Amino acid sequence: MSKASLLTLHRWLALAFAPLLLLQALTGAALIFRGPLARVLDPAGMSASGQFRQAAVSALTSSAEARFPAYRLRRIFLPPSSKDTVFAEMSGAAGSIRYLSLDPVSADVLAAGTIWRFPLEAALQLHYRLMDGRFGLALVLTNGLALTLLGASGLGFWWPRRGRILKSLAIRRAAPGRVKLRLWHRSAGVTFSVLLLFSAITGILMAAPDLAESAAPTAAQKPPTRSSADIDSAVSLAQAQFPGARLRDIRFPPADRIDINFFAPERS
Fold it and tell me: Assign residue 98 a region: left if phi > 0, alpha if psi is -120 to 50, beta otherwise?
């Protein structure tokens, strides 16, 4: 492909996907500071007591189910730090969803409502699936492909002759403002191209399996009944496999099982 064709592809992709790329950038930036930002926006509903002691998981699930008795618990996220609250997601009839934050020590409900009650959860769902299930996932996946093509076409158009890499990144001080802006765009794009491509490709790898899973037909299942003893027993069995690891989240699928995830011991 000629450099002129690469530039044309780069421009049209940028114009077509600019709104979605901007949304992804803004929501992604907010999610980097999700915990602290949630506490700033809602100190009463998203701040814990700061103690390291934690209530039994069954007490947390019982408190959530008592707040929304017509809803089924889907996921419960344990706090990553002593300042964070427990966060739960529940599903009801016709696909309705409710969210709760709970005090990790007392298991009291601190805040509850739809997704708009929790702005950072709304940012997460916008970032990951545009709040629209399969279509949203497909659009985010397409956005990742577009970002990959943007990075590749930009690099292809810029690629200099041997020995001219630094010169090709220079920004002339005497250049007119519009030309200087174009040069800044080129140099910044080249400098961060590896990071952008890494972000785009990992995003594709995250969205593609979920999109495939959402498209697969699933048989209707009646959610199993789980007692408090069942939940605490499952957590104890899992913790025995990974002693010392901190619980990250617990998921309650319609199948007769409980999925338990831990924070990995490695840094980050």
Answer: beta
